[in-house]
Amino acid sequence: MELGRLEYLQALVTEFQVTDSPEAKEQVLANLANFAYDPKNYEYLRQLQVLDLFLDMLTEDNETLVEFAIGGLCNLCLDKINKEYILEASGVEPIINCLSSPNEETVVSAVTTLMFLTTPQSRHQTTALPVVECMLRFSLSANRRLSNLATLFLEDYCSPPQVEEARNLSKHTAVGIPLPKD
């Protein structure tokens, strides 16, 4: 007998909760992030508290779990209800923290998620000065994907005075000095 959509998603959440295997957790979280791409699953994922699971995983030490969690949030936050939930659950700060990840996919998903979460009410959080400074650095990256995304963020989500303030502040700090190579 075939499981229904809700029952299948519930089985994934249960597997994530009961397994001790890091690899199994990664695989299950990757599956949940992929299911978050389909609007047909939004209600089920809310019902199963997967948004909270993704938010919780953003602070994990395992970079793969963080990557899949931010990817899942990125997929979910286009939905108005999910966006409001993430904002009300204080999700912006852990998403901003993902900008410092060494994992390119995590950073790209975090930038995209911040774009999707920007509303007139949340703009002060999603475009806070440290975020704008970070986007300025990313816009200078040799990584075209990251540089283009950061440039888009600066042009479409930040005001010219915000960008100018971040530029001026960056001139007077050590932020942006490259770290030594290993």
Automatic annotation (TrEMBL):
The gene is Armc7. InterPro entries: ARM-like (IPR011989), ARM-type_fold (IPR016024), Armadillo (IPR000225), ARMC7 (IPR042462). This is ARMC7 protein. ARM repeats lie at residues 49-91. It comes from the Eukaryota. PANTHER family: ARMADILLO REPEAT-CONTAINING PROTEIN 7. SMART domains: ARM (SM00185). It holds the Pfam family Arm. It comes from Tyrannus savana.
